TrEMBL record:
GO molecular function: FMN binding; oxidoreductase activity
GO CC, one annotated term: cytosol
Chain ranges of the NADPH-dependent FMN reductase-like domain: 1-147
Organism for this UniProt entry: Salibacterium halotolerans
InterPro entries in the record: Flavoprotein-like_sf, FMN_Rdtase-like_dom, NAD(P)H-dep_reductase
Highest taxon, organism lineage: Bacteria
Annotated protein name in UniProt: NAD(P)H-dependent FMN reductase
Family per similarity comment: Belongs to the azoreductase type 2 family.
Amino acid sequence: MKIAAIVGSTRKESFNLKLAHFMKDRYAGQFDIDILEIGQLPFYNQDEENTPSAEVVEFKQNVADADAVLWVTPEYNGTITSAMKNAIDWLSRVNQVMIGKPSWIVGASMGALGTVKAQSHLRDILFAPGLSSPILPGNEVLISSIHEKVDEQGYLTDEGTIDFLDTTVENVRPWLEKQAAVRS
């Protein structure tokens, strides 16, 4: 199953980017996770939506070609990042490649609540008419105190967190497969 991973942080040492790489490595036998770059996308502009840049065309095509999208969101000021919102704006316009495409949301932060507010906002956004992306409820991955759960290279090492992530993958995988089959 091909998964397009969209990481909301553009920071090189982002915990969420490292989480996406951890998931790509750990679940390689179950998913083909392609981590998409969103930092190079120009700001969404309705004047350019019918003739977007090559970066936007490639980004949207990668999402269109995926069976599902893995959203890996940090939390900035209680919500998603501007880079993630910009990527969503491009996906929601013109050919609307997200409609009906299943989404899965994870996130990590140094705070005690993980990314609970950002994930709540992201779920609301993904239900908007230009996106209409189904999400399996009850399988939120909100990793708090991430800086205490990784090694010096930022690789997730906390066994309880890894076990929880494994359980979530076991729950989400059959649902994603069923969603992909319905879309075929």
